[in-house]
Amino acid sequence: VFDQSEEAIKRVAFKFVDERSLMQALVRTVEGSIRAFVATQRQAAVLSLRGEIVLHVKDQLDETLESWGYHLIDLQLNDIAFDEEIMRSMAKVVASNNLKAAAENEGQALLITKTKAAEAEGNAIKISAEAEKIAAQLRGQGVALFREEVTKGMAHAVQELADNNLDPSLVYFSMWTEAIKHFA
């Protein structure tokens, strides 16, 4: 009983026909208060808000019970259970979020794989181009050395012919006949 006043005692004695009516009104009031609070929260958060739900319901219930002549000393919330449809809905949300996270992770992995493959291909192209550049330089140096040696050889041959009082055009004739042999 809220207090010992005559008015409070009358309310307690005459507000409800029997104990069953009181319990039914009490259950409906508690359920309504819980539903009102839960409606303001996200489903996933409701399960972790047991303390906040109890405080909210106790505040709401205290006012109602006071008007009936009662006082609430303590309130305990034993179990939070959603109906089957809400549980299926929550399970779908969780499954959907898991699929979304998996897709995002798969996309990130694919992005990393493709990026690394592109980097590797780019590095391979750079290495190949650098090797080709060095090979071309070495070929050019080889051709230059070959020509230099040919020139030295021809100069030496012409000098030998001149020293022996022979016509140096013999070297040119020899080169011409050698070239004709390779063309044919």
TrEMBL record:
Domain called Band: residue spans: 9-109
Protein name as it appears in the record: Band 7 domain-containing protein
